[in-house]
Structure formats: C-alpha cells, structure tokens
Task: inverse folding
C-alpha cells in the first residue's frame, strides 16, 4: 500500500511541476465559462437590418419604430430601391430587409390589408428564421395595439418561461461546458499520460516493479480525478456566483453524479491508452472521437430532438448526453434521483464496459 | 616536415548554467587529421563542450575556432564543414536506410549525382545493400551506429564530432566501429570523439580527460600512462578521479 | 532551395508512412463532417406539447386540432391536471404545455376575450423564443378563422391585417446544413493543420532528431518552410476533398468562385500553421503543446461564429475576434460559398488574414532558434 501511495505522490509531482499544463487545466474552464457567460449566446440582440420603405407614411414609420425599439433589431440603413438589397446582403452585415410596399397606409385603410415583405439572409438560416418570425410577431402585435378596442374577438396568449425566465443563454451552456471539460481533462489527459510512459519506455519499468498493473493505472489516473473534480467545483461555483445559474436540486447529488462522470471519462481515457502506444494518436483519437462529438452530439448546443433519427441513435451512445440531462435536471429543474435514475444507470453501465474492455486489452498486451 | 595545423582551437571556454559551471576555462587544440578523444565521467561536461563546438549551444565566454572559422560570427560556415553524430544516433526511425542517406546528403548540398554515387558506395562499404529499403527501426543497433557515422561524413567534412557513439553494443561491433573511425581519419577527416569507455581512449592519437568541468589531463595515451605509472587508460582515469576526491577532502 | 526539396520530401514520407495517423488525418475528419453536419441543426421539427384542456369545448378542440395539424408540433400528452403536465416537463418528456382554462369558450362568446396559457421549457432560450413565436402564430391564425366564422362582414370590415410575406435568400429552404458545412469544414481543416504542425516539431524535440538538424547548415527558414509546406498541402487537399464531399452528399451550394475559396484557404492555413509553429517553440513536450493548442483552438472556435453568431457578442468580444483567424475565414467561406461574394467583398477580412499570416510566421521564425 505504501508503494502505491508513493507512486501516486510521484504522479502528483509530475503534474504540479508542469506549470504550463496546470495553468491551462485550471485556467481553461474559467476562461471558457467566462466566454459562454459573457460572450457567446444564441439570443438575438441588435441584429442589423435595412428598411426599404416605399410609402414613407405615418403607419410605416410607426411600425419601423416599433421594430427598432424592440431591442432585437438595429436599423443599419434605409434603402431606396430594390436593387440595393442584393449588394447590402452581399456586403455581409445586413441580416434582414423589411420592405413596405407603396401606399401602405392607404391600402390598409381601404382594403384592410397591406403587405410587408420580410427578406431574411438565410445564409445563417437559424438567425434568419428567428428574425423573420420575431419581426412578423412585432408587426402583428403593433397592429393590435394600434387597433386596440376595434377587434371584436381576441384570443390572447400568456407565456410563462420555466426554469430560465430570462432566457439566459448561459443556462444552456454550463452543463455542456462541464461535460466537455470533464472529458477533456479526464479522458484526454489520462490517455496521454499513460501513452507517454509507454513511449518513453518507463511503463516497462513500472510493470517490472512490484506494483501491480491495476495499481499503476489507478495511480496514474488518481491525480486527474482530483483535478477534474476540483475543476468541476470551480465551474459550478463560478456559474452560480457570477452568472446566477441556479442550483435548484441537491448539490450533493450533483457532485456525486459529476464524480461518476469523471470516473467514466477516465475509464474511457484508459481504454484509449490501451489501444495505442503513441501520444500523438492518443491525442488525436481523444480529440476527434471524443471532443467534437461531445460538443456536437451531446445536446450541448444542438438539441438532440431535432436531429434525424439515425443521428439520435448515435447520440444515444454518447455518454456526455446523459450527463448533460442529469446536470440540467438537477441544476435547473431541481430533479432528484427519482427522475434521473435511468441516466445514472447508463453512466454506470458505460463505465463498467470501458473498464472491462481496458482490462481485457491490457491482458492481451501482456500475454 | 610540416607540423599539422590546428583545426580546432579552444581558449578559456566557459559555460555556465545559472550558478553551475559545466565548462571551466577549457583550453586545448586539436590537430588536423588526428583522432582526438574527449574523455571524462558522465556529467563532467563533455557533451556540453561538444555541443558548443558544433554550434548547438552558445558559450558563456571564451575563444573558439573550428575548421578555421570563428564560433561567434561564422557559425553557419562551421556547420557546412563539420559532421555530427549524437548519442541518440538521430537517424529517422520511420525512414529507410536509403531515405536517411538521401536526406542528409541532400541537406548538405550534394548534387543528385553525388548523392547517388556516394550512397551506393556507402551501402557497399557497409554491406547494407540488402537493407537499403529497410526502416531504421527494423535494423540492429550495430548497423545503425555504422550508418549514422557514414551519414555524418557523407559530405566530406573537415571534422566529425562523435558524441558517445558506441553505447550499448557488443565489443566486436565496437571494434568494427572504431575500424571505421580509423579509416575516416586516414581519409583526412579529423575525428573528435567523446566517450566514457576508457579502453577506447587507447585508440586515440591524443586524449583529454575532463573532471568536474576542467581538463585534468591532455596528452597521448602512452605519455599519460607513463606519467601516472599505470598500464591502462582506465587506471589513468581512476588516478585522476581519486585525486579529485582527495583534494576535496 | 534544393535543400528545401529534401526536407519536404522527408516530411511527406514520414506522414504517409505513419499508418495509424493516416486514417486519423484523412478519414476521421471526413467521417466527422458527415456525421456532424447531419447533427447540427436548430430546426424546430418536433415541438412536444402537453395539452391541458380544462374547457373541453368546441373552441378548445378547434385550437388543439390546429396544433395537431401542424407538422411542427407533436401532442405527446393530454391531461386535466396542470400539475401532471408540469411533472412531464420536469421529466423532460415535453417541451411546452398549453393550458386552455375552463370557461374559455364562454368567455369568448360573452366577453369577446379569452386567454390561453403557454408554459415553455426555457432552458434553451433561443428555442423557447421560437416555440413561443410559432405557438402564438398558430393561435392567431385560429383567432382569424374564428372571426371569419362568427363575425358578420360588416364587423369584419373594421379589422386591419398585415400580411407578411416571408422570403429567404441564399438558402430558401432554411437548410441548416448549408450553413454548417462551410463552418465544419473550416473546423476540421483547422484541427488538422494546427495540431499536426505544432505536434510535429515538438515531437522532433522530444525524440532528439532536432539536434541533428540544428547541426547542419540548414537555415532556419528552410527548416520551418519544410515543416509547414507539407502540412499546408495536406490541409488544402482536405479542404478540397471536404468540399467535394459536401457538394456530392449534402448538395451545398458553391455560388462563389472556387479559386477565391482556395486563395483564402491557403492564406488562412498559413496563419493556422504559423500558430502551431509558434506553440511548438513555446513548449517542450507533446502533452503541453497539445494542451496549449487545444486551449487556443477551443476559444477561437467558440468565438468564430461557427455555432453562435458573432454579431450577438458584446463589442469588446468582437474586438478580441480581430485576432481570431477562424472568425475571418468562416465569414469568408460563408460569404463566398453561399452568397457568391466577390474578391472586393471579402477584401477586408482577406487582407487581415494576410497580415496575420506574415506576422505570426515571422514571430515563430524569430522564436525558433537553432542554438540553445
């Protein structure tokens, strides 16, 4: 046992003496959290638009004002003809053009209907869609208020936004960020650390020592559990204190599940290290096969429910997906184990499979 | 009879790493065409000195002239005229024998024709024609060493620096390697070799022994053995090492 | 110059001989491209809705059937208890709840006013906004159809309506893949370029072959060029390959000129490779090099406009983006590929990239020393 702890201590020293690595391991989560919290968002704000107003009457002015004062839009310029639209889009800054036809007010009064053209730059289809829909909504609701009292029949919707009333983007990102970072630290670092020993040949030395293989692996991995866990706590703390991300559910459960996830990621890292001897390959595999899918297929940014069916099955084998569900559930919805036991079981299952596979690979290598 | 000129001149070479002095006012000359052994225990400062001579490291102070060029201002000219074989051999493991030869010959500026000729000659001399397309990773250590030496001199440099070239092989292979060194010297190339195998010191024309960053002895092997009244270079070294220990006590 | 040829030759041999790395460099990114582009979408295809109908009237059923008829919605749960519906949301089984209160129809008939409640899972703010917008639109169209049914023509006469005609240029079907492919291509090419170039030099440092190079008369510039050029070529090739795949499989438009794409790609890759080189001069082990590279990469990727739009970022962040090569290139790619922008249109980001390339490679070259 003493030997084992001696080994673990040596591993800690390795890591802590490597200032650059340490700086990044702790700095990166903080920086990314800041990024997501303050910088990145898929909320729409101040989108640049152009207006082609062929009527220039009272109504169109009022409507334009309603739109620009909504906070979603920023009037970049007024166009004077149709053929100015294309160059405006091509220059790249204008996201949407609103066209009011000629004699807008007159038509509205006479025929009770007038047309507005909403042209979105769909090279970014998501934004275009949102902008067009928001604009459309504003136009209609403006008309309602302008006609107030005249509409004989009205069905009014009242909307309540649950879990995230201010529609803050950061709520979505914190869970995903944690999933990604844990995988990075645990899987990537572990696989590299182990393959590094193999590359430099010191692994053989270790294997020849009285330490059992299991002890070697656990010893190598232990510091990263520690680091990853601290990182997770730091992120949670920052998210809560700086960004006000709630911790609606049990913190204890949250930490426990995080620990489970870390162990799962570590076992994955070990698995990767058993299939290659080269650091470079370990790194590329971890990055390509873990990192990118984590970001894109875990529901981090893109909701899984909207993906084609095949993709959804693919996502089902992505461990981060389940962790994200668990975290969102606990942090934002206040769910407990009662609602999350299925996902937890899946994580346990993954961990077991990875460990078993690693052991099998290890044995065949030694044989 | 003309005295062979000095092809390496070192005067008061000092190299410090922070507080630690690795080379402490080294002064020596190497004559053209000789096999000069640069001996000393591990950590005595040999590798540091040889790296400075090759232009891989800056001296803290001192005057050095290699192949007639000044180490501070004519570094690149020096590199054109020397060859180097490092402790780790530095042939690319994932390239074949031929590819390694072609690469190094190419970057030393040999023409295509020259490369072809010399590589054929080299392979023949080393009896490696059958291994021409084998990866370095797949050939035995002894072959690697010999190949590394040949590659280091493929461009006919004036001096070749060998840093601990014979580590890890059996005595017969070591002997064969030294045969190659002799031939190299016979062809007019000065050989500057560091080693901690004292028996190899016997093969050198002149030898310097470094102890703790200083040159403790510099002469032919025969003279040194006489000076210390011992029968082998190994004993010469032990005497020197022991005297260092006693002066410290 | 001849020496350069030999260096490049050696690098190519080493890359292609590395059996394990080859699939990772060539096959994996492209597989990723295929998978990820399919995954990346913000389309709202299946809004799951739980309905709490406390009225059970003709009107309430009318509303519900409007949603049932919409391809965007899927009624997953019907119940009389709001609490039950909320529990479903808590379990993650539904995205939103529509509550039609009791006396809905009565209110509509007697008071001409009635309300409907939407409770939306707002964890994903943008999706929630969209869900709200869509639901409101459907409700309004129901509103209009009810008015048409119940009101007399004279009553109808007083109502004014704005008909908005929506059109989407460059991507009329709002195909999100079209938007994502250029971005993901950039991403993959970047990863290959950045990591490989950085790793490569550090690897030589770790192994020791770099000393052998430093002893030779190879000039710094030749060595660096020899390291960069092969990867530049490989990465460009991947770009081409990825574009071809994108065209064949996703049928993405390539409206602008191809040579513009490759011109920008070439310049961009110099920046990226230069970056990798710079990192390699700052680190000693592959592990460090990888971590540092990764750190920068993630920050650049996230801020580049690939997943979230650049314009929504605070001004100070947009300033920081001035040193983000990815931001420039993604913008150029999208503009050229989707809108057919010309050299004139992209001149400013392109020039920025050019300057960036020169600066970064000079920095890296200066830092790389043949002498310790």
Result:
């Amino acid at each position: 046992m003493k030997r084992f702890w001696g080994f673990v201590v040596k591993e800690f020293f390795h890591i802590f003496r490597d200032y650059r690595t340490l700086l990044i391991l702790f700095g990166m989560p903080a920086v990314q959290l800041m990024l997501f919290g303050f910088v990145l968002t898929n909320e729409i704000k101040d989108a640049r638009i152009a207006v082609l107003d062929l009527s220039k009457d009272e109504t169109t002015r009022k409507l334009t004002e309603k739109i620009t004062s909504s906070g979603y839009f920023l009037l970049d310029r007024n166009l004077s003809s149709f053929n100015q639209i294309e160059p405006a889009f091509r220059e790249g800054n204008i996201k949407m053009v609103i066209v009011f036809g000629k004699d807008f007010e007159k038509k509205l009064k006479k025929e009770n209907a007038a047309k507005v053209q909403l042209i979105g730059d769909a090279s970014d289809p998501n934004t275009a869609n949102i902008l067009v829909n928001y604009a459309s909504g504003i136009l209609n609701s403006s008309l309602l208020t302008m006609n107030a009292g005249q509409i004989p029949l009205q069905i009014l919707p009242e909307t309540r936004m649950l879990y995230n009333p201010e529609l803050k983007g950061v709520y979505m990102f914190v869970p995903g960020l944690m999933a990604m970072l844990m995988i990075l630290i645990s899987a990537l670092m572990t696989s590299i650390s182990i393959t590094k020993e193999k590359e430099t040949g010191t692994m053989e030395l270790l294997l020849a020592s009285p330490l059992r293989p299991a002890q070697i692996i656990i010893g190598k991995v232990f510091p990263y559990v520690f680091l990853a866990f601290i990182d997770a706590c730091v992120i949670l703390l920052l998210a809560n204190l700086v960004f006000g991300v709630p911790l609606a559910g049990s913190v204890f459960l949250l930490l426990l599940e995080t620990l489970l996830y870390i162990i799962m990621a570590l076992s994955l890292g070990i698995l990767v290290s058993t299939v290659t001897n080269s650091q470079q390959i370990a790194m590329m595999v971890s990055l390509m096969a873990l990192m990118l899918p984590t970001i894109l297929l875990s529901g981090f940014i893109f909701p899984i429910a909207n993906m084609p069916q095949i993709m959804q099955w693919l996502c089902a084998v992505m461990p981060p997906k389940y962790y994200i569900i668990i975290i969102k559930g606990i942090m934002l919805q206040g769910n407990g184990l009662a609602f999350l036991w299925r996902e937890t079981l899946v994580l346990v299952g993954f961990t077991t499979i990875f460990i078993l596979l690693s052991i099998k690979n290890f044995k065949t290598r030694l044989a | 009879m003309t005295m062979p000129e000095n092809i390496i001149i070192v005067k008061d070479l000092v190299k410090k790493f922070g507080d630690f002095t690795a080379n402490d006012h080294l002064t020596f000359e190497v004559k053209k065409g000789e096999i000069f052994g640069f001996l000393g225990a591990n950590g005595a400062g040999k590798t540091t000195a040889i790296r400075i001579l090759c232009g891989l490291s800056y001296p803290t102070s001192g005057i050095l002239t290699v192949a007639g060029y000044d180490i501070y201002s004519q570094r690149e000219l020096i590199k054109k005229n020397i060859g180097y074989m490092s402790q780790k051999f530095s042939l690319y493991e994932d390239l074949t024998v031929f590819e390694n030869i072609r690469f190094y010959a190419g970057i030393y500026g040999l023409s295509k024709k020259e490369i072809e000729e010399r590589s054929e000659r080299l392979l023949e001399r080393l009896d490696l024609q059958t291994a021409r397309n084998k990866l370095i990773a797949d050939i035995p250590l002894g072959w690697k060493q010999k190949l590394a030496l040949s590659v280091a001199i493929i461009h006919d440099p004036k001096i070749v620096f060998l840093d601990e070239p014979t580590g890890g092989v059996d005595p017969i292979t070591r002997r064969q390697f030294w045969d190659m060194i002799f031939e190299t010297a016979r062809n007019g190339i000065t050989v500057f070799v560091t080693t901690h195998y004292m028996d190899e010191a016997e093969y050198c024309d002149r030898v310097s022994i470094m102890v703790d960053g200083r040159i403790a002895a510099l002469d032919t092997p025969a003279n040194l053995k006489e000076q210390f009244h011992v029968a082998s270079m190994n004993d010469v070294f032990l005497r020197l090492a022991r005297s260092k220990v006693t002066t410290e006590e | 110059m001849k020496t350069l040829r030999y260096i490049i030759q050696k690098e190519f041999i080493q890359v292609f001989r590395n059996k394990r790395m080859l699939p990772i460099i060539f096959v994996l990114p492209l597989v990723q491209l295929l998978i990820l582009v399919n995954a990346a979408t913000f389309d709202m295809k299946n809004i799951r809705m739980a309905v709490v109908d406390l009225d059970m009237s003709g009107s309430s059923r009318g509303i519900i059937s409007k949603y049932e008829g919409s391809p965007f919605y899927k009624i997953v749960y019907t119940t009389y208890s709001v609490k039950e519906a909320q529990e479903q949301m808590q379990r993650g089984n539904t995205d939103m709840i529509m509550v039609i209160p009791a006396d809905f129809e009565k209110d509509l008939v007697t008071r001409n006013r009635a309300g409907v409640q939407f409770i939306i899972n707002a964890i994903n703010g943008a999706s929630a906004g969209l869900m709200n917008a869509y639901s409101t639109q459907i409700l309004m169209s129901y509103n209009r159809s009810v008015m048409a049914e119940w009101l007399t023509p004279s009553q109808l006469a007083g109502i004014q309506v704005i008909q908005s005609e929506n059109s989407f240029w460059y991507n009329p079907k709002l195909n999100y893949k079209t938007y994502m492919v250029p971005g993901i291509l950039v991403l993959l090419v970047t990863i290959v370029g950045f990591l490989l170039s950085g790793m490569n030099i550090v690897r030589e440092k770790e192994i020791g072959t770099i000393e052998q190079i430093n002893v030779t008369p190879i000039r710094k510039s030749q060595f660096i060029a020899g390291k960069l050029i092969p990867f530049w070529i490989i990465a460009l090739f991947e770009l081409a390959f990825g574009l071809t795949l994108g065209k064949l499989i996703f049928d993405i438009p390539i409206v602008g000129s191809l040579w513009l794409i490759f011109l920008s790609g070439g310049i961009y890759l110099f920046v990226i490779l230069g970056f990798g080189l710079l990192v390699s001069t700052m680190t000693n082990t592959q592990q460090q090099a990888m971590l540092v590279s990764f750190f920068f990469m993630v920050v650049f990727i996230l801020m580049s406009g690939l997943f979230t739009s650049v314009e929504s970022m605070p001004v100070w962040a947009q300033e920081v983006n001035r040193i983000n090569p990815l931001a420039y290139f993604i913008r150029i790619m999208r503009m050229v590929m989707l809108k057919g922008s010309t050299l004139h249109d992209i001149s400013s980001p392109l020039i920025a990239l050019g300057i960036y390339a020169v600066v970064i490679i000079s920095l890296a070259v200066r830092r790389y020393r043949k002498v310790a």
